[in-house]
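Incident log entry.

Two folding requests arrived from the same account within the same minute. Monitoring flagged them as a possible duplicate submission, but the sequences differ. Recording both here for audit purposes.

Request one:
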Amino acid sequence: MRQQEQRHLRAVRTTAYNNEVAAELLQELLARACSEDQARRIRCARRQLLRDADALELVWQALSTPDATPRP
């Protein structure tokens, strides 16, 4: 695999990981939410970060093993 492709794979994997970490931090922040609206917005952002992390992991799987079908 070329160095450029490895960098792309690493970027996808790192972004997936960072999304999961951000979602965990939002979960901790949720306990300190000032209002119901703020809590709802935090929950929505957390949910989207986790969905994106899952999607990026599927992209990483597809790119790192081109002949394998990504697992949902």
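Request two (distinct sequence, not a duplicate):
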Amino acid sequence: MYLAYGDFFAQNFCVHSLYFLLTFYISFAKLVIGGIHMEKLRKTLYDVLIFIVSLCITGSISVSNVKTKDTSHINLTVDETARQQEILGWGTAGAWWPQVAGASDNAEEIAKLLFSKDGLGLNIYRFNVGSGSKQNPNSRLDPDSWKSTVSFLVYNEKTGKYEYDWSQDAASMKMLDLAMSYGCVDSVVLFSNSPHFSMTITGQASGGFKKHQNNLKPECYQEYVDYFLDITEHFIELGYPIKYISPVNEPQVSWGGDDVYQEGCHYDTEELFKLYRLFAKSIKARGLNVKMSICEVSKITSKTFDYLTYIYNDPELREVLGTYAYHAYWSDYNYYLKTLWGNSAKKHPGIIYDMSEWCELPTRFKNQDIRNALRMGQVIAMDMTLSHPSMWSSWVAVSEGDDYGDGLIIANHDCSEFRLARRYYATAHFSKFVPVGSHLISCTKDVNDRYGTRKKKKLECFFAFRSNIAAYLTPEGKVVVVIVNNDKERTITFNGIDGRDSLKLYTTDSKRSLELTYDGDYRQTVTVPAYSITTAIFE
């Protein structure tokens, strides 16, 4: 879609390479001084290799007749016949907030905003299977924190055993029921950040006492499998559409150490796939009609590529693989890395790719700042057009306070008060108008509107573009084009959209929130406001 940048990079490859190598050698020196282990050094070098290869691959691409000076007008060419991935849905994670929001007077209103057609219409609900930190008397997490969770497995003092109590986590179950009641949710993913605390080496669901330490007891691997599948069977018996389960989340993260902040469990590669194989065997033995989401790595690194190749060549895991899930943190504007990952995914056909977690890290913009909506809109558009996932989910739907740039809704501690973040509307531009069964279609522009050579603190800004555009063909035959314009006002001429009589434009900018700004006859040329997101619907 943005191949024009290849010309620029091909001309400036040496400059950028020298800059990157200098940065790398400085980092390398710091790592050596810090006494890094050889395995970590290998990983660092491999990540650098991936990065450089990605620059070489995309830098060699050229596009003729590309305008680079005047970016105030864009000629956009849409090809409905060039269909790419099918869209299977938009979602969010029910981590932490449902156990508070579900018990509040605002539970129904919050659920409606997220999961109804009048709201975002999200169809994927990622239900967090809590690991019991709130019930653990020795937990290092604050029991009053949202991030401290309740488990269905509780200690029975009379029997001296851990037993299931399905009345636990009632608020989260209420929120799930409310979400289901609006008729949009067709896929519930059960995921957990850690095994139950009783199954861990440290007796904690927040990780090891040292970083990068496996925390699942060696003798509890099968016990954890049985526990998670027992919960899965219970949810299925209750009638919830459990399509996928994800018992491991961000396995490569260090999790633990002196400072803990949420539930999480580190797994080395060998231990991770040992656990996955046990799940595969047990799912088959139980005859469960459910698939797995693997591997939920936190960002696109060497692990993302390695795990995909490993799973693709393992028949036992392929049999239970439902989606290859990954997270897109720390690569927000990285055109090259997202493209490289998308190219790798194409070499492994027959797999559904799921971008299952993203939020703004680090948090740069206030929740009511239009820039946080623009950032999210750009990330979604780039992910969909470069990495080609069929499913895209944000991280927590509701966050407590303004400290983090993650929630679509911002609430106080007990959810008695809440407001919508601007990210909510960025999500809406996709989720409300691109239904399940739509296909991404080819969409190319005739300008190279990267940010240029102005000084930036982050190398990632070399990759950013002032506009990111994604086009879709819906099952009803509508053409939906989402335009994220992170620059001045522009005019856009649409080419290749034939046989449509009408046009609707929905706009979000500093003054408007998903406002219907045009509803009338077909127009080939439209104007999009400065620093805005516009969804154009051609019927």
